[in-house]
Write a structure and sequence with these properties.
734 residues, globular, seven-stranded antiparallel beta sheet, 15% strand, eleven-stranded antiparallel beta sheet, disordered N terminus, alpha+beta
């Protein structure tokens, strides 16, 4: 290596740059992109048509006429849903409706385990807390915001931007009409759009398959292909009799939507066009090499390690009792989903050399920026910002995923608001703060499993002690723990401490809690072992280290804005899409099989044959309802059969670009018909938040024919099928 000539090294570097540029160009022409439907542009739309789209731009998105955008909704706080009937019927994923299904269930009526279908509207179950947001319009407010910050320095600019965004949100919102305006910051602060929504709060559960169908494969199959999960649930949105949004009322009537999606029974084949509408949550495709290193070295491995502990102790209790499983299921599913994601993300970032790719991009930017005062020192400042923040970054992950990963501590931490009211002059209304805490406590107790949570407190406290720099410890905490409970190298010490906290806190004791509510006393709260633990770690963070995080975040955001501004100036003709921001996007691609590694080829579809092959009676993840096994063995697939395979297609994959938030998104064919629901991505492309992979990226979708079969044949809810506008394959002459 050291003996290579200078010319050889230059040639090697040129070859690497050529390879990198060819990869970059390939990415540009792959199916990458979560596009704003309002701003598709002629080139992107032409590419969609070339791939198989048969609709006009106005059919995709229109303010004045009914269009596909009117059928796609924000479902709850982090998913997508679609309207599929003229009576407000919603299809989304099972995991998106999971909490509502669990909440509606009891040990006697276990809809999570057994499934549920309303055979009339009177049987539909109110889903408290759910909402459906319909997009009314999108407007560009970039000029208004940019004009307001001219001449301001970085700190003043950031504050002013937030102030103006608040004003714009208020101007576009009308609480009396349930209209909500939300400004989204795009291209890292180089563009601002306001999205205006009509919000409906009367949502009711209509149907869901048994969990053994809706979550078939469990954590083992999560983020994996082949996949055989029937990941769907059904809800309905209601409106008041006068046609407006409403909170739940028995007098409400089903919504009459502007548009509903027709549902196709025609099926798909390899290469067919696929379009996905939805609300992707977040990506960071313009992340720097510094951010990649931070993820790989600190953020991801610590998060995975801490979540692994939580999952271990929760799962041990869930196996013991159906009631506990029902209690912990929503929390467990949420924790497990991104435990596996971040583990896979790290592996794929390393596998595909994303860090090195970012370094090459940044070197090209440095050269372009020479002599340009706005940009030339950008990466020098960025390196300094990361160097100053990195020593404290591990503690932040431990606080969020470790200290507050214990459910008791997460609730106890919220009582800081009560303490502030009690000890600070003019801190607020004591009676109101305590009443709010009492309501929150009811929710906490309903969700709390003491046995698993006590273990989580013990182990995460021990891990904090062993992993965090001692100079960052809360003053006196571990010394006191050692003095009272023993040697800190012994895990039993932390178990004894956790038991004392759980047994001594007033948060589990109704008599003590009621006495505190009757006579709120800061000394009593501060002396409570659970609150003392939570507040000790929180105040240590807030007082000493949170300012470092604020400084880093502000600097990182501003440098990110300048970097992207510079990138756009480097190549002003290139068509770019903004990072996902949980705003309406459309992605397009094709149904496509793939070969992830040597001698392995994956078909684009999975069938009922594969479901039966995975079936393990009594298994926690791979059991099936007896009725499903019976119907499948009889091959009773009715009109939902795929004649080309002579089987029931369960799932399929496409090349579409999606991310979290797209769960439940409609997969739409070239004619604008619903063919499936997006619900997952594949393991080989888990770097997708940072870098889209043009070769291996796949979106995993449940085939709409399997959804309908589960509703009709398995669930016996033909009334739901009758609501849909079914598009059947054209019969061919023999």
């Amino acid at each position: 290596m050291t003996g290579r000539s200078r010319s050889a090294r230059l040639l090697s570097k040129q070859l690497f740059l050529t390879l990198f540029l060819s990869i970059t160009l390939l990415r540009g022409f792959a199916d990458e992109g979560m596009w704003l439907p309002l701003l598709l542009g002629e080139q992107v739309y032409a590419d969609m048509v070339k791939k198989g789209l048969k609709l006009t731009k106005e059919q995709l998105y229109s303010i004045n006429k009914a269009s596909i955008k009117d059928a796609v909704i924000i479902f709850g706080n982090g998913c997508t849903g679609e309207i599929v009937s003229n009576e407000g019927l919603i299809f989304t994923n099972h995991h998106c409706g999971y909490a509502a299904i669990t909440s509606a269930s009891s040990v006697e009526h276990n809809y999570l385990r057994d499934g549920f279908y309303a055979h009339s509207k009177a049987e539909e179950i109110p889903a408290q807390g759910l909402h459906a947001d319909f997009l009314l319009k999108i407007e560009d407010v970039t000029k208004e915001i940019e004009d307001s910050v001219k001449g301001l320095n970085d700190a003043d600019r950031a504050a002013k931007v937030q102030s103006v965004i608040t004003e714009i949100n208020k101007r576009y919102s009308d609480e009396s009409k349930s209209i909500l305006g939300k400004v989204s910051t795009l291209f890292k602060g180089n563009q601002f759009l306001v999205f205006v929504y009509q919000v409906y709060n009367d949502i009711r559960l209509v149907g869901a398959p048994p969990e053994s169908v809706g979550k078939f494969g469990g954590d083992t199959d999560n983020w994996e292909w082949p996949r055989h999960t029937g990941d769907f649930s059904i809800f309905r949105v209601y409106m008041s009799k006068d046609g407006g949004p409403s909170n739940y009322s028995p007098e409400d009537i089903p919504l009459k939507p502007k548009y509903s999606l027709p549902v196709s029974l025609k099926g798909l084949k390899d290469g067919d066009f696929a379009m996905i509408y939805g609300y992707p949550g977040s990506t960071n495709r313009y992340e720097t090499s510094y951010g990649i290193k931070q993820k790989l070295d600190i953020d991801n491995p610590i998060l995975v390690k801490l979540r692994d502990i939580r999952l271990k102790y929760m799962f041990e209790e869930m196996k013991k009792d159906p009631g506990i499983k029902l209690q912990l299921a929503p929390s467990y599913a949420s924790i497990a989903n991104y435990w596996k994601f971040y583990d896979g993300e790290s592996k794929q970032l390393v596998k595909y050399g994303i860090y090195d790719q970012k370094k090459v991009q940044e070197e090209a930017f440095r050269k372009w920026a020479e002599g340009k005062p706005e940009f030339e020192n950008l990466f020098t400042e960025w390196a300094k910002a990361y160097d100053e923040w990195r020593p404290y970054s591990k503690q932040r992950v431990y606080l969020l995923e470790g200290v507050l990963g214990c459910h008791l501590m997460a609730f106890a931490a919220t009582l800081q608001q009560v303490e502030n009211v009690l000890v600070k002059q003019g801190g607020g209304d004591i009676k109101k703060a305590v009443a709010a805490a009492s309501e929150a406590r009811k929710v906490f107790l309903k969700e709390e499993n003491r046995i698993s949570d006590q273990h989580i407190l013990a182990v995460t406290t021990s891990m904090y002690y062993n992993d965090i720099d001692r100079s960052q410890f809360p003053i006196g905490f571990f010394e006191s723990l050692k003095g009272s409970y023993g040697d800190l190298s012994n895990p039993n010490t932390f178990e004894k401490y956790a038991a004392a906290v759980f047994n001594g806190t007033l948060l589990f004791d109704d008599m003590k809690w009621n006495a505190f509510v009757a006579n709120p006393d800061a000394t009593v709260l501060q002396g409570d072992p659970a609150y003392k633990h939570a507040s000790t770690f929180l105040k240590n963070w807030q007082g000493k280290y949170f300012p470092y995080y604020q400084q880093f975040t502000a600097k990182n955001n501003e440098l990110g804005r300048l970097y992207l501004k510079g990138i756009m100036q480097m190549d002003p003709k290139k068509i770019r899409y903004p990072d996902a921001t949980f705003t309406m996007r459309v992605s397009y691609g094709n149904v496509k099989s793939y070969s992830p590694r040597d001698a392995v080829h994956y078909d684009y579809a999975c069938t009922m044959k594969g479901v039966l092959e995975k079936y393990i009676p009594g298994d926690y993840e791979f059991d099936l309802p007896a009725r499903l096994v019976e119907l499948a063995k009889k091959r009773d697939f009715g009109q939902y059969i795929d004649k080309s395979r002579n089987d029931l297609v369960v799932t399929f994959i496409t090349t579409n670009d999606i991310t979290g938030g797209n769960s439940g998104s409609p997969v739409i064919d070239g004619q604008g018909e619903l063919v499936g629901l997006a619900f997952d991505g594949n393991y080989e492309a888990l770097s997708h938040k940072i870098a889209f992979d043009p070769v291996y990226n796949r979106t995993i979708c449940v085939d709409i024919r399997y959804v309908l079969w589960c509703i009709d044949k398995l669930g016996g809810a033909s009334n739901i099928i009758d609501e849909l506008k079914l598009v059947k394959p054209v019969a061919t002459a023999k």
